[in-house]
Amino acid sequence: MAEVTVNLGNDSYLIEIIPGSISQIGKSLNRMPFTRKALVVTDDTVGALYGKDVLDSLTGAGYTREIMYVRPGESSKSIKVMEEIYTKAIAMGLDRKSPIIALGGGVVGDLTGFAAATYLRGVPFIQVPTTLLAQVDSSVGGKTAVNHPLGKNMIGAFYQPKLVQIDPLVLNTLPERELLAGIAEVIKHGVIADEQMFNFLFENVERILAQDANVLTDVISRNCRIKAEVVEKDEREANLRMTLNFGHTVGHAIEAATGFSRYNHGEGVAIGMHAAALISQYVGQCETADVDRLKDLLQRFGLPIRAEGCSVEELEAFLSRDKKSDGGKISWILLNKIGHVQICNTVPANIVHQTLRAII
Ligand SMILES: NC(=O)c1ccc[n+]([C@@H]2O[C@H](COP(=O)([O-])OP(=O)(O)OC[C@H]3O[C@@H](n4cnc5c(N)ncnc54)[C@H](O)[C@@H]3O)[C@@H](O)[C@H]2O)c1
Ligand SMILES: O=C(O)C(=O)C[C@@H](O)[C@H](O)[C@H](O)COP(=O)(O)O
Ligand SMILES: [Zn+2]
C-alpha cells in the first residue's frame, strides 16, 4: 500500500494505491461528508469487469447508487455523452453533496470529471482509475475535458477530485496496447523530471511488459508523486505544468488528424515526444545522443515513433489551435537532456515543418 497527498490547500486530496481496493470504495467514501446517493460512470468493458465490485461496495456502505455505461474509446469524450451524464444525474436527483465516481481509464475520468465540475456548478468527484495511463497521469491533477472535432480536450475545466483510489490489480485485465499507452506517459515523466526513473525503465522493460506487479506498483507511486509535485507548484498551467505537455503538441495533432481512432493517446504522445526531441536537436537545445536514448526506449517498448494516415498540412492546421499558444505562438516543450526540459515559443515554422516531414 502507498499513499501520495496532492497539496492544494482546501482542494488537497489523497491518492491511495492499494491492491484489492476496487471493492473497498464504499468504505473510503464513508470517511467523507457526502449524501449517500452516488452515480458511477464507466465504460462497457470496465463496467463488465469491475462494475459489480464497486456497486456492491457502495451498497454495503449504505449508498443508493446507479451506474451508467459509455462506449469504450475516445469518441465518448464528447458533449453529447456528457449531456447523457447530466440527464442521469438529474433523473437520479443527485444533489450538491452526491459523489460522481469515474470507474475506468482516462476517457471516463476526463469526461466524468467535467460533468462533475459543471453539474450543479460542481459536485464531489472520485477517481477510480483502471488503466496504467489513468493511474499514473490522468486521474491526478484535475484536468477534465471533452474533445471537439477541431481539437483535443478543447472544452474542459480544472476540477480536482476528492479522492483517487488506485487498485494496481485491475491492470491484470488490461490489454498490452493500453499498458504501453500508460508507459508513454511514464517515459514522459522521466524525460521532464526524473532521469533515474528513465534509466529504471530501460532496466525493467521485460518485467514491465510481463506486468510484474511489484514493478508496476512502484512505477505508479513514483509517477503519481512526480505529477503531484508539478501540479502543486502550478495547478492552472501558468508555466511549469506546461512541461507535462511534452510530446502532446504534435501528439494531440496526430490524434485529431486521424479522427481520434487510429492512435490511442499514449501512442500519439510517443510520436509527439520523438517530434519534440527532433525539434530540440534541430534548434541546438540538446545532443543527438539524448534524442537517440529517448527513441531507443520508446522502441524497446514497441511504441510508435512515426505517424501514418495524416499529412504535414493537416498536422499544421491542428497545431495552430494548440492550447499552449500565446498570441499565435506555440509554447513548445523542448528537451535539454533526459530529466530536463524547457519551454520555448520561438521555434521557427520551417523547423516544425521539417520535423513533421521526418515523423510521417
Ligand atoms: N486529465 C489528464 O491529465 C489526462 C492525462 C493523460 C491522458 N488523458 C486522457 O486520457 C485518455 C486516455 O486514457 P486511457 O489510455 O486510459 O484510455 P481509455 O480510457 O480509452 O481506456 C483504454 C481501453 O482500456 C479499457 N480498459 C480500461 N481499464 C481496463 C482494465 N482494467 N481491464 C481491461 N480493459 C480496461 C477501456 O475499456 C478502453 O477500451 C485520453 O482521452 C487522454 O486525453 C488525460
Ligand atoms: O496534467 C497535465 O497538465 C497534462 O498535460 C497531462 C497530459 O498527459 C494530458 O494528456 C492532458 O490531458 C493534456 O492536457 P491539454 O491541456 O494539453 O489538453
Ligand atoms: Zn497525456
**Mean of residue pLDDT values:** 97
Q: Cα distance, first to last residue?
A: 43 Å
Proportion of residues in β-strands: 15-25%
Largest sheet: spatial strand order: 1-2-9-6-5-3-4
Computed structural class: alpha/beta
Bound small molecules, which ones? nicotinamide-adenine-dinucleotide, the ligand O=C(O)C(=O)C[C@@H](O)[C@H](O)[C@H](O)COP(=O)(O)O, zinc ion
Q: Please mark out the parts with pLDDT under 50 across 5 or more consecutive residues, or reply none.
A: none
Domain tally: 2
Radius of gyration: 20 Å
CATH architecture of the largest domain, please? Up-down Bundle
Give the biggest sheet: 7 strands, mixed
Shape: globular
Classified by CATH, the class of the largest domain is Mainly Alpha
- The amount of helix comes to 40-55%
What does this structure look like?
Residues 182-325 form the 3-dehydroquinate synthase C-terminal domain. Keywords: Amino-acid biosynthesis, Aromatic amino acid biosynthesis, Cobalt, Cytoplasm, Lyase, Metal-binding, NAD, Nucleotide-binding, Zinc. It catalyses: 7-phospho-2-dehydro-3-deoxy-D-arabino-heptonate = 3-dehydroquinate + phosphate. The chain has 360 residues and is an alpha/beta fold. It folds into 2 domains: 2-173, Rossmann fold; 184-359, Up-down Bundle (Dehydroquinate synthase-like, alpha domain), CATH 1.20.1090.10. The protein is built from 14 helices and 13 strands. The strands form 4 sheets. It has a 7-stranded mixed β-sheet, sandwiched between helices. A two-stranded antiparallel sheet has the order 7-8. A two-stranded antiparallel ribbon has the order 10-11. Strand 7 (143-148) and strand 8 (151-158) form a beta hairpin. The N and C termini lie far apart (43 Å). The model has no long low-confidence stretch (mean pLDDT 97). It binds nicotinamide-adenine-dinucleotide (NAD), the ligand O=C(O)C(=O)C[C@@H](O)[C@H](O)[C@H](O)COP(=O)(O)O and zinc ion.
